[in-house]
Design goal:
The protein has 2 helices and 5 strands; from the N terminus they run E-H-E-H-E-E-E. It has 104 residues and is an alpha/beta fold. The chain has one domain: Response regulator (Rossmann fold). A 5-stranded mixed sheet has the order 2-1-3-4-5, sandwiched between helices. The longest helix has 14 residues. The radius of gyration is 13 Å and the shape is globular. The model has no long low-confidence stretch (mean pLDDT 91).
Length: 104
């Protein structure tokens, strides 16, 4: 059976003492929602263009979703990710947006 793939995202600047717990949360969310966790990305305040980085990694890994323990792990403008992937954040799912024409 082919599972849908997802990538996990963890911001290492947030609660470093809870890193292990946050990784377990990411794995549990992915598992509970039927995703194969393809990789775990770590970002922080020094990550250059984190949204672009996350989308790039999702595309090259064939992921259809990004999993995070909370929206704060995705950085500013996390909603932009929904133009490329579904977001699985804690108890919430934010579906990928339909095709978008930025020229309009």
């Amino acid at each position: 059976m082919n599972q849908r793939r997802a990538i996990g995202v963890l911001n290492t600047d947030l609660s470093p003492q809870h890193r292990r717990r946050d990784i377990e949360v990411i794995a549990a969310i992915a598992r509970d929602r039927g995703y194969e966790l393809a990789q775990l990305l770590t970002i922080n305040a020094d990550t250059y263009m984190p949204i672009t980085y996350i989308v790039h990694e999702a595309v090259i890994s064939g992921a259809v979703a990004v999993v995070a323990p909370g929206v704060v792990h995705l950085g500013e403008h996390a909603e932009a990710l929904t133009h490329a992937v579904t977001l699985e954040i804690g108890a919430d799912t934010v579906r990928r947006q339909p095709e978008w024409d930025g020229a309009r």
